[in-house]
Inverse folding.
């Protein structure tokens, strides 16, 4: 959610509600890597996230974190796209400042949304916002262009890149295998079988769950060990994260 001077009347014109399951609105805009169109990444996962403003302390740590963990996003075929309402030159200056401080080159584009057109398109502008503070919005978009997850953080709280990776692993598992993930799930752990759709299926799980390869606590709570069928980019994510030993330089 990006703070800007957009009028309430203009906000009211956008009656579309951005929700999980909707096709992500397409856009074309200039960025720190040239012109970017969202639909050019169709077939890949996309993490599209806003930053309240350039040179913010928390926002800077986020760009550093996403840059340091970028190889993990690449393994999952996830394209990162950030967006600000600052100018393209300001975005470039920000990346130069990060490079001078840390030696890191931010590898993903930062969009320039000066008129808040894209921010408004994605409901990033809240007419009821208090104290004119913006928040941090993030949208995870699946390969067919649908919004798979929406994450909102207050301006004071930096995103947890590790948790976003875990969410992406969960979403990719569901997308590829139609399995759900339980509370506190980490890649490699058993997944949850979706609820039965018929009474007959419920009875089958109640009396023959093990015969179906499931570990059932009840007819509606069954687990499956899928570790042997995971694609390489999903295996041992927790170990990779622990081995990364990311050291923030701020």
């Amino acid at each position: 959610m990006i703070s800007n001077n957009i009028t309430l009347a203009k906000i009211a014109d956008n009656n579309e509600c951005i929700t999980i399951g909707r096709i992500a609105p397409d856009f074309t805009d200039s960025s720190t890597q040239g012109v970017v169109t969202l639909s050019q990444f169709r077939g890949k996962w996309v993490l599209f996230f806003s930053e309240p403003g350039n040179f913010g302390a928390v926002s800077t740590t986020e760009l550093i974190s996403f840059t340091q963990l970028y190889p993990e996003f690449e393994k999952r075929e996830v394209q990162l796209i950030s967006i600000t309402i600052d100018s393209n030159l300001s975005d470039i200056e920000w990346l130069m400042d990060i490079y001078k401080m840390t030696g890191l080159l931010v590898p993903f584009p930062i969009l320039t949304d000066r008129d808040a057109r894209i921010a408004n398109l994605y409901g990033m502008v809240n007419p009821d916002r208090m104290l004119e503070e913006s928040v941090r919005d993030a949208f995870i978009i699946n390969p067919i262009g649908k919004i798979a997850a929406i994450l909102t953080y207050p301006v004071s709280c930096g995103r947890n890149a590790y948790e976003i990776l875990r969410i992406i692993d969960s979403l990719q598992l569901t997308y590829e295998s139609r399995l759900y993930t339980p509370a506190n799930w980490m890649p490699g752990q058993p997944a949850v079988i979706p609820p039965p759709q018929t009474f007959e299926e419920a009875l089958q799980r109640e009396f023959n769950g093990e015969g179906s390869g499931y570990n059932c606590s009840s007819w509606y709570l069954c687990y499956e060990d899928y570790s042997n069928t995971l694609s390489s980019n999903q295996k041992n994510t927790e170990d990779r994260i622990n081995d990364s030993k990311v050291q923030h330089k701020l």
The longest strand covers residues 147-154. The beta strands are 28-29, 36-37, 45-50, 78-84, 110-112, 135-141, 147-154, 191-192, 215-218, 221-224.
